[in-house]
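Each letter names a residue; the fold follows as tokens. Both lines appear below:
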Amino acid sequence: MNKYILFFISLFSFHSIALSDLNNCETKILQVLKPNYPSTIYQGYAIVKFDIDTDASISNIKATESMCAISRDINGKIIFKECPFFKSTSVAASKYLKYAIPKYSNGKLCKIKGKTIKYNFSLYSFKVINNNFLLREENNSDNLDPFLNENEKYIDTYNSPIYEVNISI
């Protein structure tokens, strides 16, 4: 009986070590190709999901979200709607991502599934922070206050959980 208990305890211990190792699989981005701005009058973003194989190659590339910035709500936050404009150019650029070979902390090679990158497409040369796009009517009216006030809130503290690339016309 004690042998069986010891077996299950050792099996559980091995399993938990293997799971913690999976969380330590790390890599570093080496190269990013900025996509071309698509033929559209909209601005917004696309999120692309992909896997990084043990040889650092990229596979299973898929756009999971593409949104267009259309206006601001009464609190100054951007309102988005789904749109297809940024998907294909973002997926095409993601094929050229270069990463270092992913490894566990012990040096063993690993594979990373479900890595994401976000491509922000802006009509203007302002960095997009926390999904805050400068809207056309704000730029044309010379009233940049809603845009600048939103950026002011996040400029020093914004830390995106995924890698972001800003593209402007």
Q: What stands out?
A: The chain has one domain: 25-168. The first helix runs from residue 2 to 23. Residues 25-168 form a domain with the TolA/TonB C-terminal domain fold (CATH 3.30.2420.10). Helices lie at 2-23, 87-94, 136-141, 145-154.
